[in-house]
Design a protein that fits this description.
By secondary structure, this protein is α+β, with helices and mostly antiparallel strands. The chain has helices at residues 2-12, 29-36, 83-88, 102-108, 200-225, 230-241, 247-254, 258-270, 285-306, 311-328, and strands at residues 41-42, 44-50, 53-59, 63-66, 71-77, 91-96, 121-123, 129-131, 136-148, 151-163, 169-172, 175-178, 274-277, 280-283. The chain has two domains: 41-171, Pnp Oxidase, Chain A (Roll), CATH 2.30.110; 200-328, Arc Repressor Mutant, subunit A (Orthogonal Bundle). The chain has a seven-stranded antiparallel sheet. Strands 1-11-12 form a three-stranded antiparallel sheet, with no helix packed on it. Helix 7 (247-254) crosses helix 8. Bound molecules: flavin mononucleotide.
């Protein structure tokens, strides 16, 4: 049978790979969160209102549950100040963020007293605030609350769903990202019945995306060799140039989520690579050495990648890329 053949093939070519890290989540919570971060998600702001009180939180725990009846779920930490209102209000709205709303995600994950004061929103017909500029809204009636360890799982019966134009904001491996079609999944000219496009106009942009993706993945091995992962490497690079930054400033400067920034700071402090001073943080001597080591690896990596490519080709590539950057850079 075909399915067995596929299974046999994949089993016979299976080569066990060493994990970057592994362990017991009960012992190492940060490792657990990094492993969970390998599962990319979207970002939603969940809102509610009851008796003149409003609450809103940024979440990436949103998921669909059932089509008939239409159910969705998300989970709220017991430590959230908004948990009580979400547990008692009887309704909530899920506002799915677009790629243009990274600042909205940050705003609603903050500890601001009134998160609605600076937001653009309107009351929905089912009692919960709806935020402007989102990709989708799900207006829900609270269906059930389920105990989920240090979180409460909130299930909603969707009373109305709506969808708007735009691209999703994603969260993956501890950082905000945007969606891009997988090069192998893009519709090919062959599939649409036209001749394959081998001209420069037809291939250059997808080649840029693919080269960027492959090189980033490959450089990951060099970071691991220095005992670093992406969020730690970003914090170190940022602190090297701007010592004394506070956690909130670091989260903004590195485009990492608040929790991942906090995790990275704790890990760097434990490893003696960072020290706290005057409410902010700076790299220790060992931290600065590590930054220099990574920089050296980056330079050697680039040199190895371009070795053997004729000088004239490299110059032409740089001219083309500079032009693309210039014509797409939005003036401040
Ligand atoms: C990307 C991202 C995803 C988050 N996901 C959740 C989540 O699923 N559940 C949760 O309780 N908090 C989550 N948080 C943290 C909350 O947004 C934050 O703790 C909350 O807004 C605090 O608000 P409150 O104390 O005013 O309720 C997330 C934060 C970010 C940046």
């Amino acid at each position: 049978m075909q399915s067995n053949a596929v299974m046999e093939n994949s089993t016979s070519s299976f080569i066990p790979r060493l994990p970057l890290e592994e362990g017991d989540p009960a012992v190492d919570g940060r490792m657990f969160r990094r492993c969970l971060g390998q599962y990319g998600t979207g970002i939603a702001i969940i809102t509610t209102e009851a008796n003149g009180r409003r609450a809103a939180v940024t979440v990436n725990s949103f998921a669909s549950v059932s089509l008939e009846p239409p159910l969705v779920l998300w989970s709220i930490a017991h430590t959230s100040r908004s948990r009580e209102l979400f547990s008692s209000s009887g309704c909530f709205a899920v506002n799915i963020l677009s790629s243009k709303q990274m600042d909205v995600s940050r705003h609603f994950s903050s500890k601001l007293e009134d998160k609605f004061a600076d937001a653009v929103w309107a009351s929905g017909d089912f009692g919960s605030p709806l935020l402007d500029g989102c990709l989708a809204h799900f207006e829900c009636e609270t269906y059930s609350l389920v105990d989920g360890g240090d979180h409460t799982i909130i299930i909603g019966l969707v009373k109305r769903a709506s969808r708007f134009e735009g691209e999703p904001l994603l969260f993956s491996q501890g950082q905000y990202s945007i969606a891009d079609s997988h090069p192998a999944a893009s519709p090919t000219p062959e599939a649409s019945g036209t001749k394959p496009d081998t001209t420069a106009e037809g291939t250059i942009v997808s080649q840029i995306f693919e080269a960027h993706h492959l090189l980033s993945t490959k450089f990951e091995e060099h970071r691991s060799a220095e005992g670093l992962h992406l969020s730690i490497a970003r914090i170190i690079a940022c602190m090297y140039d701007r010592p004394g930054l506070k956690i909130d400033q670091l989260a903004v400067a590195t485009h990492l989520g608040q929790r991942d920034t906090e995790d990275a700071i704790s890990e760097l402090l434990e490893r003696g690579l960072l020290f706290a001073s005057g409410g902010g943080y700076s790299l220790t001597e060992a931290g600065r050495h590590l930054r220099v080591a990574i920089q050296k690896r980056w330079i050697a990596f680039q040199q190895a990648q371009i070795a053997g490519i004729p000088e004239a080709d490299l110059r032409a590539t740089i001219r083309t890329l500079s032009k693309l950057i210039d014509q797409n850079t939005i003036a401040e």
